[in-house]
Amino acid sequence: MPRSFRLTFFFSSHRSVRHTRMHTIPGPLHIPSSHSYATTSHSPTKTLKSQPAFIASVFGINEGVRLTEISRKSQEIPTITKSLLDRVFNALDGAIIKFLDPPLHLSVDPCYTLTDNFSPVDELSPTECEVVFGTIPPCLDGVYLRNGPNPQFTPSGPQHYLDGDGMVHSIRIYRGGATFCSRYIKTNKYLFENQVRSFIVPNVIGGMQGLGPFVARAALFCARIVLGQYDIGKGIGVANTNLAFFGGGLYALCESDLPYAIKVKENGDVITLGPHDFKGKLSMNMTAHPKIDPETKEAFAFRYWATCPYLTYFRFDADGNKQTDVPIFSMKEPSLTHDLAITQKYAIICDIQLGAHPMNLIHRGSLVSVDKTKVPRIGVLPRYAKDESDIKWFEVPGFNVFHAVNAWDESDEYGRDVVVLVAPNILSVEHFFDRVDLIRASMEKVVINFRTGVVSRQTLSTDNLEFPVINPAYIAKKNKYVYASISEKTPIKSRMMRTIGVAKLDIAASEDNTVASRIYGDNWFGGEPFFVAKEPEDSNLEEDDGYLVSYVHDESSGESRFLVMDARTPNLDVVAALKLPQRVPYGLHGVFIKEKHLNAMSQSDIVC
Ligand SMILES: [Fe+2]
Predict the structure, then answer these.
(1) With contact defined as beta carbons under 8 Å apart, do 549 and 144 qualify?
(2) In whole angstroms, what is the distance from residue 353 CA to residue 376 CA?
(3) Which domain of life, per UniProt (predicted)?
(4) Ligand 1 center to residue 582 CA distance, Å?
């Protein structure tokens, strides 16, 4: 399928996000708050190279800033004409905002949602960090990277938080010292917009507020494409959701586009290599949450789509070679399936009530809709399936999963397969895009018995926990501990919830599953934790023998820190805190790569 077909994904959408004993981190240093929302983040001016347009995938490299080609047609247009076109397009965009857009809902009003520590920051080249408390454990030699939306330009119309350009905040640790940097993922969208210094690509979520504005924006975007202002063949994704390391490559991911290959340089800088299609075998988008089997090193993934097949499952072998697509035709309607789980036998697919159907724009004025009459289902597919003939679907009423924690295989007394899935169930899913403050999550363990068809459920926590992680060595295997972010108790209306702490659950316990926690302190907020095992290859160590790492931010002083917490202690004791050289906005998902894997990656560049 040609990559230009990805334009139709314009109709598809994205998803999102989201007490215990009080323990505070060491006292904050008071530093003036840095950015207001009006600040835009701009890279240095770039020079457009003259190359044939047909080699659309060719990127030039200049110390982390990759230059793309605007099509030959664009280059043939005189500069003065380009400038005039820019003005015309910008005027038309302004007219859409003024005459067609409905009054901005709070959830897509950037002046409302992208304030405080949700506001974007500028790029920062590698800068040394100060260890302000404790000592960094030697096992943390490596790099922690976290992705998140960080709009390149101040939006002039509706924009959802999740529409922002992806920026990676990276901390490179070596022998007790650390350097930090913030770099945009140089997506096709980022590079083209950077050239013309304004928006070109309509926001996938925020721009879908009503049929009229949608059609107008789509027409304007098509005009930009025809006149060479944008090369749609290279995608419109923002690569802002997650990061994954598999098959020797490190990728920035967003479910609306191809993965973007990135690389960590020796000095800690992060450069974008470009969109990666796995030797032409991945022609469309894929989930931002592939699951990597720690034993086989395979990666399991899927993509969802607005037309049939609504979901397609696939996997990559240990060397990163993509295997054959398995279309799931038994998924009868679009589902905003964000994540999957794997066991050693199966892939677990969730068919939820939240969907994105083009007809929603006509009938409801919004792309995304929730079908409360639909009974969510869990599909269990042999993970090496060649087709969907052996998939089994199980109805699980009210079970809407965005992030799957883990799954594993068991068997009943007759030797028949039992599958266990642990995941936060998103309650009141209908508020997912416009009233995220009303979202609540209930951590559940779901047990599926193949022989009886019975699905049993156990609530593990109702503490509104999200962004769950485990020791990565236990993916697809029975595990005991889950770590998750604790959402704030009184969130701001229609704004993404902040995280006040982290909780550790013992999912094997029959009651009182929360066995440890940390609250960051007054006005301190964090994000997704990531578990780093002390010695992943040492089977004698306990599952929780390692550290939780996360970025945290003090809204009083404007200071951001990198925290290292001992996962085995009841208070998740802070063993090291690093003051970061600039503010780190709240974001989405991250990954930690140990030193030896980082070295291996530096020797095997992914070709894009
Ligand atoms: Fe996610």
Answers:
(1) yes
(2) 6
(3) Eukaryota
(4) 25
Query: Is the separation of the CB atoms in 107 and 434 below 8 Å?
Result: yes
Query: What separation in Å is there between the alpha carbon of 229 and the centre of ligand 1?
Result: 31
pLDDT, residue 603, reads 60
Biggest alpha carbon distance in the chain? 77
Q: Residue 269 Cα, ligand 1 centroid: separation in angstroms?
A: 24
Q: 3-state class of 248 per DSSP?
A: coil
DSSP letters of 133-157? Answer: EE---GGG-EEEEEEEE--SS--SS
CA of 467 to the centre of ligand 1 (A): 7
Instruction: Find the 78 Cα to ligand 1 centroid distance in Å.
Output: 43
Tokens for 335, please give them: 């589902």
Q: Cα(27) to centroid of ligand 1, in Å?
A: 31
Q: How far is the CA of 396 from the centre of ligand 1 (A)?
A: 21
**Cis before 309 (ω within 30):** yes
Name the more confident of 123 and 230.
123
For residue 240, which amino acid is it?
N
How many whole angstroms from 589 Cα to the centroid of ligand 1? 7
The token pair that represents 297 in the structure block: 């090193």
CB 74 within 8 A of CB 229: yes
Tokens describing residue 72: 């030959």
Among 54-58, 105-109, 164-168, 294-298, the range scoring the smallest mean pLDDT is 54-58
Q: Per-residue b/e over 1-38, b at no fewer than 16 CB within 10 Å?
A: eebeebbebbbbbbbbbbebeebebeebeeeeeebebe
DSSP notation for 330-364: T--S------EEE-SSEEEEEE-SEEE-THHHHHT
Ligand 1 mean position, distance from CA 205 (Å): 15
Q: Under DSSP, is residue 488 helix (H, G, I), strand (E, B) or coil?
A: coil
Closest CA to 453 of 392, 400, 374: 392
- The residues that bridge with 173 in the sheet, in sequence order, are 142, 178
Quote the ligand 1 centre to 14 CA distance (angstroms).
10
pTM: 0.86
Q: 80 pLDDT exceeds 50?
A: yes
CA distance 43 to 450: 54
Four-residue CA torsion sign, 206, 221, 283, 359: positive
CA dist., res. 333 & res. 336, Å (int): 10
User: Ligand 1 center to residue 133 CA distance, Å?
Assistant: 31
CA distance 286 to 346: 19
**Shortest CA distance to 171 belongs to which of 600, 607, 608, 576?**
576
Q: Are 77 and 228 in contact (CB under 8 A)?
A: yes
